[in-house]
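dude i think i finally got it to work??
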Amino acid sequence: MRYGHLWTRATPNSLLVEETLKFINPEKMTAAETVGHAKDPVRSKKARNANVQFITDKGILERWLATAQIINRDLGWDFDLDAIEHIQYGEYNEDQYYGWHIDQHKEPYADDRIRKCSFSVFLNDDFDGGEFDLEVGSPKDQLTDQGRIKTFEKLNVNELLFFQSDFWHQVRPVTKGVRRSLVGWVLGPKFR
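look at this
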């Protein structure tokens, strides 16, 4: 469903970002896994190399859902968004990355919801590499910012990138420092 603006940048409430980060415990960070690859650690390692922790606080999740619903409405997508998954805090150290993937799963969840919108909040800018690529064009387009791939080298600290969950995207390897982000997936009933 690619119509209207394909993505947007927004600035979430700074207090919401701050309160979300209070739930992070560095001792509880774990190696990231990719859905469908958990039983194949070699394939999982090739797809993604990062450290994550999930934020499950209901109040925080409700506030992120409300933020996503406003952005969805402002973009004119008007998707039926009624749930959000746990927010993922991620750290990409030097040489860590997340290869090309889409966030929408092949099958709906048991409650018939699907991932419709995704967002990433860029928490810092004191790193090199770690560019975020979003495929917004077709394979016939050139691989440039004006064509098939839109590359975000760095966004402002605490700025959010919002896009549809069926878009291909990746995080390139970090070359210096640590790239930190919050990631969210917003759900709704299957498209009809």
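Residues 58-75 form the longest helix (18 residues).
im so relieved honestly
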